[in-house]
Amino acid sequence: MTHCILIPTYNNATTLFDVVSRVLAVCGDVLVVNDGSTDATMEVLQPLEDRIHVISYERNKGKGYALRKGFEWARANGYDYAITIDSDGQHNPGDIPLLVQAIKQSNNQAILVVGSRNLAADGMPAQNSFANRFSNFWFLLQTGTRLPDTQTGFRAYPLKRLPCLKLMLHRYESELQLLVLSAWKGVRLVPEEVSVRYAPDRVTHFRPFMDFFRISILNTVLCLLALVYGWPRMAIQKMKGGSR
Question: Whole-angstrom Cα distance, residue 44 to residue 32?
């Protein structure tokens, strides 16, 4: 199973070089998607340009759009998995081998590995912990699957089993959408414990009110779809599996 590392970034020039450098220490196939940054992002990447691939566009379009462009590039270049990691420094690139090992242990079964953070860790913003517990609850209702961290950006996606990329939402809620639709498609979701660090000067573009509102709307829509599509589809898949 071949894999690349996908790093979407928007105005994280202060942490980006360190993140990319540490990722390169464990994997040589790295794609950075510059989502319309207005800071020194491109200047920061310049010393690394002969070691990484970069997709850049002028207008900020959202994390979901950046992920979509990265998935499309990874598919076109023949990779089986894209491992996503945030550029704000919260994730430890040294944990990438944990996700790779989980893929290897799947016996060639397509799985989606979810890097699960310790929500009780020192420095974890209270609003993050609440939003995650809220999201975990609704995810359980929508899929019947219990995950400890449904909002992490540290994941390994099986590129051939992803939902239709043209239907991806463009903002933060796209990551929840990918989890739910993948579960409905029968992709096994595998949590893998990873470390997390929130630096005092960390730059985040998550808007507590607006993005939480958008996620809440998505959860409402997904709950309705779960009744008429998600749960029936998973039930049919389960019956087919039991009849083999």
Answer: 12
CATH 3.90.550.10 fits 3-242, yes or no: yes
Q: What is the mean pLDDT of residues 21-47?
A: 97
What is the H or E stretch that residue 114 is in?
Answer: strand 111-116
Domain boundaries, the chain: 3-242
Element (H, E) at 113: strand 111-116
59: left (phi over 0), alpha (psi -120 to 50) or beta: beta
Phi-psi region of 142 (alpha: psi -120 to 50; beta: other; left: phi over 0): alpha
What CA dihedral angle connects 228, 229, 235 and 239, to 10 degrees?
A: 120
pLDDT at 130 over 70: no
Tokens 């060639």, residue?
108
Cα(53)–Cα(68) distance, integer angstroms: 15
Phi, psi (degrees; rounded to nearest 5) at 74? -65, -40
Q: Which of 40-49, 98-107, 171-180 has the lowest mean pLDDT?
A: 171-180
Question: What whole-number distance in Å separates Cα of residue 192 and Cα of residue 133?
Answer: 17
Per residue in 7-19, pLDDT (tens digit) is 999 999 999 999 9
Phi/psi of residue 82, each to 5°?
-120, 120
d(CA 228, CA 98): 36
Nearest CA to 88 out of 33, 27, 7 is that of 7
